[in-house]
Amino acid sequence: MRFLHTSDWHLGRSFHRVSLLDAQRAFLDHLVATVRATAVDAVLVAGDVYDRAVPPLAAVELFDDALHRLADLGVPTVMISGNHDSARRLGVGAGLIDRAGIHLRTDPATCHRPVVLSDAHGDVALYGLPYLEPVLVREEFGAERADHTAVLGAAMDRVRADLAARPPGTRSVVMAHAFVTGGAACDSERDITAGGVAAVPAELFDGVDYVALGHLHGCQTVDDRVRYSGSPLAYSFSEEHHRKSMWLVTLDADGAVEAERVDTPVPRPLARLRGRIADLLADPALERHTDSWVEATLTDPARPHEPMAALAARFPHVISLAFEPERTDEDRLASYAERLRGRTDRQIAEDFVAHVRGEGPDADESALLQDAFDAVGADAARKEAR
To answer: Domain Calcineurin-like phosphoesterase: where (predicted)?
Structure first.
């Protein structure tokens, strides 16, 4: 059986205020063409269909058109909600849409009820695990702790229990939206830290044949049976070197996995340029970036006059400008943003406590700070879920 594994469409998202709707439409055209050309048995969309809980109308229309086109092909499509989606909104009408072969899996309570497909070798059970916000689903799963490992582990226990009750030889696929240990993150993914930990071990998925992951935007292999498709488009300059693609996965009679990458259309390459403005404007080696979306970081000791206009004369698609003046290591005027770069919210709060009273928080106080940040995150998740 063959699947096309994709995720993280983020319909409605822009790139530094540049609309990506046309690029997203081109990707969906490519997706439909690939489904038709490869004769896959199912399409798997592992979450973050939309970029936000209440997407713009144009994104909803694009999604609606994609659903109709996939349904017209007669190829089953299984989708889960991600941390950017509103599970309730995405799941509206799921029962009716199910009849058209579009299977929306957004309810954590039903994650152990698979979509079952069959081929000449028997059944394949496709389990869709929507994004599980620990604080919101802990009670549903009876998890000991409100963290990702506990709730996802409990969900997988339900999956394995259902699979064990099925005929011997039933192959299995799990779709999940999570940060699995071993995956490489980038700047465009929303932080899902809970309980101080964002990542879950790949061993949580033991016992299934293939795991189709979403959330991380780089296409990558955690191991042969656990893979991220990545986002079909770049959503931050940190993805400059990503090769955007989908996985074409073949599951043989014994559940062994073969996977090949199917590249997705690139609307415009990305370039991160750094240096003094005079050098960026004069360097002939940078000519290849005239058609790229450009992020320029200027290192001039003094801020140049109207730098964006000067850069745009050579790089018409420059859309991001930053300043990092050249300084010595001893320079105490380094920016606040530079001092905070790479630090978590809790670390910043602990630094503040140490600054105010002369010593950092003890273990109990650190735990209290983490509980506060988790509560804020859970409150935001509840508001998005409404």
So the answer is: 1-218
